[in-house]
């Protein structure tokens, strides 16, 4: 199985980008992982929130294959602790899917088309974080989840 993380907009902060790269490399020991950045919408100031979400939604849908399982990182999603998230990952790996796709939306969230296509929603916290930081937090939690599944000491340092 491959895990893909789709995110809108690049990471401007060099320290965050460096940490994200570090965890991407670590994840490579456990699973095939891809981080794919969808460029910000050009001239978004001229668009309504709904128009921007729809345009981003189209770009997200264009990155999916028919067999992908789509999970949204959404403030209204189910919250997990790290151990239950590792079980969630294991369940998806056991199901035989080819690619599990997690998506971090744009500044206004997701379009209706994306909500309809999604097979699940996960919330990392009730707090609001920058979309750039969410990338780091989520990739770190993926890594932590795999170390839990492999019974490695990282989770209890």
Automatic annotation (TrEMBL):
Its EC number is 2.1.1.177. Keywords: Cytoplasm, Methyltransferase, rRNA processing, S-adenosyl-L-methionine, Transferase. It is found in: Cytoplasm. Homodimer. InterPro entries: Alpha/beta_knot_MTases, RlmH-like, tRNA_m1G_MTases_N. Belongs to the RNA methyltransferase RlmH family. It holds the Pfam family SPOUT_MTase. It comes from Allotamlana fucoidanivorans. It is an enzyme of class 2 (transferase). HAMAP family: 23SrRNA_methyltr_H. GO terms for molecular function: rRNA (pseudouridine-N3-)-methyltransferase activity. Coiled coil: none annotated. GO terms for cellular component: cytoplasm. This is Ribosomal RNA large subunit methyltransferase H. Transmembrane segments: none annotated. Specifically methylates the pseudouridine at position 1915 (m3Psi1915) in 23S rRNA. S-adenosyl-L-methionine binds at residues 73, 105, 124-129. CDD domains: RlmH-like. It catalyses: pseudouridine(1915) in 23S rRNA + S-adenosyl-L-methionine = N(3)-methylpseudouridine(1915) in 23S rRNA + S-adenosyl-L-homocysteine + H(+).
